[in-house]
Design goal:
Elements: H1 9-17, H2 21-31, E1 40-43, H3 49-57, E2 63-67, H4 70-83, E3 90-92, E4 105-111, H5 120-129, E5 131-142, H6 148-170, H7 173-185, H8 189-198, E6 202-209, E7 214-220
């Protein structure tokens, strides 16, 4: 599914969020400043927007982008070539079985990954495994707003308008029907924070963005 929508992924993100997704990624990139020295892994890098944001904010760090979708990685490669910036190595990888040694990265970032994992706990354990002691895990996710009237309006937009846009722009209504359905099934920010703490992560915090429709979680290994 992600390979099917890869060519229109950036355009759809901009249309759905009014272009605000870049600002959310910049917040994640800025938060990497709290990590110890060392490389950063951007997991489920997609078309590499977050990896590039981290590179721009922290030019001395090596940033590696990993994704399980070859189609997304092809778009990321094309974006890097167009920018003349080959400094973000890209790797095909399964988030539930990362091909990296323990304690390799100073930080692991992800944007809109967690709700797509077959096992959320296994994915978090893998992120924790490859992060150095004292390193950071930073995740960005769509979440259901917890304000009744706004939540209802957001639901109409997400379940009716977004699939219609996806059908016209990306030619794939099913993928953009999956998107709101996956958000409905996913745990809320407090539950995700408790799961991270239960796995032994420290200093777990989250903040809501974009009228409480986006959650940025941070944790220390």
């Amino acid at each position: 599914m992600f390979t099917r929508i890869a060519r229109r992924y950036d355009l759809m993100n901009s249309l759905m969020t009014g272009g605000r997704h870049h600002a959310w990624r910049r917040l994640v990139a800025q938060a990497v400043a709290g990590a110890p020295p060392g490389p950063v892994l951007d997991l489920a890098t997609g078309t590499a927007d977050l990896a590039l944001a981290v590179r721009e904010a922290h030019g001395s760090r090596l940033v590696i982008g990993a994704d399980f979708s070859e189609g997304m990685l092809a778009q990321a490669h094309a974006k890097l070539r167009a920018r003349g910036d080959p400094r973000v190595p890209l790797v095909a990888a399964d988030a539930l079985a990362l091909p990296f040694a323990d304690a390799t990265f100073a930080a692991v970032t992800s944007a809109f990954l967690l709700r797509n994992l077959e096992s959320l706990e296994r994915g978090l354990v893998q992120m924790q495994r490859v992060t150095k002691p004292g390193g950071q895990i930073l995740t960005l996710e769509i979440t259901r707003p917890d304000v009744p009237v706004w939540g209802a309006l957001f639901g109409v937009y997400f379940h009716r308008v977004v699939p219609a846009i996806g059908a016209v722009v990306a030619g794939d209504r099913q993928a953009y029907t999956y998107l709101p359905d996956s958000v409905e099934r996913f745990v809320g920010p407090p539950e995700l924070a408790r799961l991270m703490e239960g796995l032994g992560l420290r200093n777990v915090r989250y903040r809501r963005l974009a009228l409480r429709t986006i959650a940025l979680h941070s944790a220390t290994v």
